[in-house]
Structures are given as C-alpha cells and as structure tokens.
Write a structure and sequence with these properties.
The structure is a single chain. Helix 4 runs parallel beside helix 7. The protein has one domain. Helix content is 74%, strand content 2%. The protein is mostly helical and 262 residues long. The relative contact order is 0.15. Strands 1-2 form a two-stranded antiparallel sheet. The chain contains nine helices and two strands.
Length: 262
C-alpha cells in the first residue's frame, strides 16, 4: 500500500512569500522605510484583532485554531486517485479470499483503516454508512470553526485599522495649533488602515479560504472511503468499485472508459 505522507503545500508558501516580498519591496524602495513602522498603530490593529478574537471565542478554540492553521501549509491526505487504487486492491483481495482477510492488511490511511475495521467486524452496511457520515458531519463542523475564526480576524483587522484612523484624526485635529504633532498623528491615522488591510487580505482571509478548500478535499476523500467500503461489503466486482469511485476524480485522471462516458 502507498504510504500516507506529509507534503508541504508549495502554493501557500509561494503565495505568502510573493505577497509579503512585494509589499516589503514597495516599502523599502521608498525614501524612508522607517516611517512605515509605528508602534501605536501596531498595538491598535494587532492588539484589537487578538482581543476581539478572544472575546468571540473560548480560549481553547482560539489556540486550537492556531494549531489548525498548519493544515494550510502541510498536506496530510492521501490523494484521491491513490485512495481509489488502495480500495480497489482491497476489493480484489476481499473477493478473491474473504472480507475477513482484510483484517491483516496494513493500511496507512487511518480513516480507510477504521472503515475497513468496521466492515471486518461484521457491521451492517447501513450502520457503517451512519457511523462514517456522522464523522464526516462533525469533521465539517470542526473545520468550519477554524475558518470562521480566521474570517472573523479578517473582518476585525480592517475595523481596528479604521478605529486607529479615527484616533489619529482626533489627535491631529486636537493639535492643529502645534504643527510638530500633526505628522505623528497623521501617521497613526494612515498606518493603522494599512496594517489592518495587510493582515486581513494577505494573511487571515487567504488562510481561511485555504482551510476551507482543504476541508472540502478531506470530506471528498472520506466520501470515497464510504462508497468504497460499502461496495466491498456488498461484494461488488472490483471493476464496478473502480468505476463508481472514479466519479470523484477530474475527467483527466479517469481511465479511458470513464473519460468517454464523461
């Protein structure tokens, strides 16, 4: 059986590196990059965003989501085409020997291994379907919590950027009689908006979208497992199993017969 590896998601790394590099380049190429560093603005945006995040969510959920963010950088799922190959191989073995023979097979994908174990233990197809569908439902709910938290941060950061802008404008208007204080106040007003936009649009919102896509990929993989294991339990021919599961693949990855049908 193919091993279930952990692969770095290159697209996430490239996107963050390119986005950050271009923003920093635009700053560094200016006359005085130091003017883009403003401690009060950083405190307002980052502090406010983190504070609101803790207000909205329990502490365990916040720290749990930060741990889940690593899923945007590392892929742990077995590719669906490889998963289908494993399931078809298992169906051949079950048809050639028996369903109980799958008990001794080493299966690297843990969800597939669990589903096969349910089948080997003699659980009825309807019960297997209920168990797996329930797991898929709660998986989607857990993933949505992390996505919602990052989406909330993407909303809060620009909002605190606007708050910082208002603070800076108030300070500027209150010191109109002292021209030396107008510049720093205006810097707070503008830089908080900049910081909020960068945090929201370069980090929080894209990572939330990436987690959403990863969640859908994992759900699709588990649906493949569900359909495959039910087919094995019902004694379907391996060719029939493969044809059923190929529906989860893009047309280019399907075999010739499936491509013509598509």
């Amino acid at each position: 059986m193919p091993r279930r590896g952990v692969n770095v998601d290159i697209s996430t790394v490239i996107g963050l590196v390119i986005g950050t590099a271009l923003v920093l380049s635009a700053i560094v190429l200016g006359d005085n990059p130091i003017i883009f560093i403003n401690v009060p603005s950083i405190l307002i945006v980052i502090g406010g965003t983190i504070g609101v995040t803790f207000i909205k969510n329990p502490m365990s959920r916040v720290f749990g989501t930060f741990a889940v963010v690593k899923n945007a950088f590392f892929g742990k799922l077995t590719p669906i085409d490889k998963l289908i190959e494993q399931i078809v191989e298992l169906s051949r073995k079950a048809r050639r020997e028996s369903l109980l023979s799958l008990e001794k097979v080493q299966i690297e994908d843990p969800f597939l291994a669990k589903a096969i174990r349910l089948a080997v233990d003699g659980m009825e197809p309807a019960a297997i379907k209920t168990v797996i569908e329930t797991e898929i439902t709660y998986l989607a709910q857990r993933h949505k919590v992390g996505q919602d938290l990052l989406d909330g941060m993407a909303t809060a950061a620009p909002a605190f950027g606007m708050i910082g802008t208002l603070i800076g404008l108030v300070q500027m208007l209150a010191s109109m009689d002292d021209p030396s204080k107008i510049g720093p106040s205006m810097a707070v007003a503008i830089l908080t908006t900049l910081y909020g936009a960068i945090i929201a649009n370069l980090f929080a919102q894209p990572l939330a979208e990436k987690l959403k896509n990863r969640s859908q990929d994992e759900i699709n993989a588990r649906m493949v497992v569900l359909q495959g294991v039910l087919s094995i339990v019902e004694g379907d021919h391996p060719a029939s199993v493969e044809q059923k599961l190929s529906a989860y693949l893009p047309p280019k990855q399907r075999k010739d017969g499936d491509k013509k049908a598509a």
